[in-house]
Amino acid sequence: MKSDLACGILAGGAGTRLGGREKALIEVAGKPVLARLLDRLRPRFPEIVLSTNRPELFDWTGLPCAPDRLTVRSPLAGLHGILSALRAPKVFVLGCDMPGASLGLAERLAREDADAALPVSPSGDEPLHAVYSTSCLPAIEGAAATGRWKMTDFLSDVRAVRVPVNPAEWTEGPLSPFFNLNTPADLALLERIYHPDSK
Predict the structure, then answer these.
(1) Domain range summary for the chain, segments of one domain joined by +
(2) 101 phi and psi angles, rounded to 5 deg
(3) Tens-digit pLDDT profile for residues 157-171
């Protein structure tokens, strides 16, 4: 992985359809989903930052935690916090519940000469599996100041590139790069994948 590319993980979301639990800490076959993700990310990224307002829950990772600096709790505020905490100029940002994230695709996006590089899957923009530059900070703050809190609301104010992708071409294991844990059915799928003997 490029040495000037960091990784930022949005770890602040609660799984409302999973009993309100912190998704990062949900255990899959006896191991937190975040720990499974970190097993893949640590060898590839020299800098990893967690976006969370509850750093005490993540002491076990040994990673720096970036709290929200903007007022509305949203993924955009998490991205802003990560970008504000970085040493590297660019960051691959993903959700904590995306164990199939494609490191090859992250590297591909990082090669774009842009402030933001987003993959576009058949489902549309994938802003939680994208590469952002610290130069996005003023545009994010401008969007927030006018109540635009969607992850893509600030992109018109930066040099943004959308890269069409076929998820199958970037799948690096049993899961699509853009799979995320939202429902009990998703959790059951992960249990089957990581613990094949489970019913």
Answers:
(1) 5-194
(2) -45, 140
(3) 999 999 999 999 999
